Amino acid sequence: MSWKDKMQRGRQRLAAVNWYLVSGLAFLLLVIVAFALGALRLHDLLGDAEALPIESVIIKGERQYTSDTEVQLALQSLMRRSFFSADVNQVQQALEQLPWVYQASVRRKWPARLKVFLQEQQPVAHWNGDRWLNVHGQVFTAPHPDGLDGLPLLAGPDAMATEVLTSYQQIRELLHINGYGLKSLSLNPRHAWRAELDNGVTLELGREDTMARIQRFINVYPVLAKQPDKVARVDLRYDTGLAVGWEDAQQESR
Question: Is the pLDDT score of 52 beyond 50?
């Protein structure tokens, strides 16, 4: 075989190899394009609220103050998304913006539902007149429903709400075992305590030795209650004694 024949055969083999390479690359490119178009179509389908709508929302958890209507309004815009494109974190945040919702958890439930568990606030006291205190000592704002008028009245700086609640519980317990009820407790900006009992007596407790001063009142009040005039106020801000304000005297001074 001549040198020219060998060169011609080499060129033919190289051309065949190049053709196989080009064909393989073209096929690979077609596969990639097909996958990309399929992924794009799948993405559009998963985000299509008409093709894959959220059919229902299942609400679990005890509710006293949060209505179905409030939940529906909170989720109205989010429900326009598809089952897969709905952001469960946004749904959770929207529900936790409702005034009486303390915590919400949301998860998808195949094939087209959202399952929601709601935990409502548990109010234990009125706070500064127009707000509430929950069982964790946290302040929150919510409308006033029926049935909560009997809660105690607590007041003080928001940053000290937990301390006020703890002190209320301690003072209430001490008074209760001695036959008295605690209606309200407040802490002023100077950190002085004032309590009002169910019988209308106001106690000025000052800033120190609160429990000892409550005990002093308990020891002395049976004697005061025997007096002709009704006790209106007892000032316990003394190291050993106390000062008494009588109801008739206060009415005469007005």
Answer: no
